[in-house]
Prior knowledge:
Number of strands: 14
Distance between the termini: 64 Å
Strand order of the largest sheet: 2-3-4-5-6-7
Helix content: 25-40%
Radius of gyration: 23 Å
Shape: globular
Amino acid sequence: xxxxxxxxxxxxxxxxxxxxxxxxxxxxxxxxxxxxxxxxxxxxxxxxxxxxxxxxxxxxxxxxxxxxxxxxxxxxxxxxxxxxxxxxxxxxxxxxxxxxxxxxxxxxxxxxxxxxxxxxxxxxxxxxxxxxxxxxxxxxxxxxxxxxxxxxxxxxxxxxxxxxxxxxxxxxxxxxxxxxxxxxxxxxxxxxxxxxxxxxxxxxxxxxxxxxxxxxxxxxxxxxxxxxxxxxxxxxxxxxxxxxxxxxxxxxxxxxxxxxxxxxxxxxxxxxxxxxxxxxxxxxxxxxxxxxxxxxxxxxxxxxxxxxxxxxxxxxxxxxxxxxxxxxxxxxxxxxxxxxxxxxxxxxxxxxxxxxxxxxxxxxxxxxxxxxxxxxxxxxxxxxxxxxxxxxxxxxxxxxxxxxxxxxxxxxxxxxxxxxxxxxxxxxxxxxxxxxxxxxxxxxxxxxxxxxxxxxxxxxxxxxxxxxxxxxxxxxxxxxxxxxxxxxxxxxxxxxxxxxxx
Length: 502
C-alpha cells in the first residue's frame, strides 16, 4: 500500500486525525504511537474492555493520555447492564435500561446514571456511548433487547431524557444511540445491514421520539445507526445518509451537537462499502466523529483513515469545509468536557465509591411469579443449569452472567454447568441428580431449544426455579419464575436473594 504524503502540523492532517475516535490494542497503558498521534491532532481516544483491569489502572491510563492533551475526549461504551466495559470481568454494578424502564421511575434512572457518571469521571472518562434510545419494537431483535428501556416510545423517551440529565450532571457527555433507531430490526448490524421497513409516520411517532427527548435534555452527542430506513433514505444506511444525519437530525430536529458513528468496522459498513470508504462517506453525510477500534486498533488503522480523509479532500470527494466543521465539533465537545469538573489525577481514587443504587434498582426491577406447584424456598445447595445462547457481539463473551456465583456465596457446594442446543434440558436433568434445579435463561422466547429445555425440566421436576435474564416475553414457567430484565451482576444478586427468600 502506498502511504499518502502528509505533514503532521498542517491543518488538513490535524483535522483528519481529529475526527477519529480510535482504540488501541490490549494494553493497559498508552502506547507510544498513540501519544505521538495525539500531539499531531488526534482529539479522542476510545477504551474497550481489553484496556481495563481495575478502576485505579484506568484512572492512571487516562491521566497518562491527558498528559499529552488536557482536553482529550476519552470515550467508552459503558451502557451498564449487559454491556459493560468498566466492569467487563465482574459484571456491572448497575442494571441496564430494560430493568430501569420496567421500574419506570425517572428519578431512579437519573440517580443511577448520575452515579455511573461519577464513577466514569473519577476514572477520567468524559464521553459515554450511551444510552440506547432505541424502542425495542421487535421482540425478536437480536442486538438491542434488554439494552432498550422498553417497547413504548413515551416510556423510552422519558427515561432517555432522565439518563442524559443524570450522566451529564457528572460532567460526562452522553451519546444517545442508535439514530434513527435500531429497535425494529431482526438483524444485527455487526453482521449486515438491517432494514426498518415502516412508513415515516411510524418512524416519527415511535423511533424518533426518544431522540427528540434526548436532544431536548441536552445530549452532547448522538450516535448513528448502520440501518436502512427506506422511508427516510431508500439507498443509504443512517450512518452514510446525508438525508438522515444532515437533513433530519441537524435541520429538522435542530440538533447541533456531535454526531458520532457506530463502529465502522461492523460488517454493515466495512463489509458493504469498505472500511476507509465508509468512513469518508460518513463524514461527507454529516457525521463528525468516527468510532473505530472495537476491531482494528493499531497505528496502521489510524494512518490509513487519516490518509483516506486527506486523499478525499484533495480529490474533491469530501469538502475541506465539511471535514473542518466535523473536527471543530469534536474539539467543541472536548472543550465542554474539559471545562466541567472532572477529578484530576491527584484527586482520583480510581472510581467513585459504590453507593448501592444499582442493587436497589435491580431489586425493584424483579418480577417474581409463583407457579401453581410452588415449592418451598431454596435452602440447600442447588444445581444451576445455565442455558446460554450465542453471545451478542455488543455484549461480548468476556463478562460473566447468571446467578451461580451469588448462590455459591449463599449455599456453599452449589454445582453448575452451562448448556446449549437441542437436548440440553435432558442433559441438565441427568446432571442435577436429586438437587433442586435453578434454570437460568436469556431471551427464552427467541430460542426454541431453550424453551424446550425449560419444558423438559419443569415437567420432570415441578419444583424447578426459572430465572429469565433477558426480555421476559414468554409466559412464566416453573415453581418460581424470576424475571430480572438483564444479566448485570446486581441482577444476579437480586435474583439470588429472591431464590433464597422464595
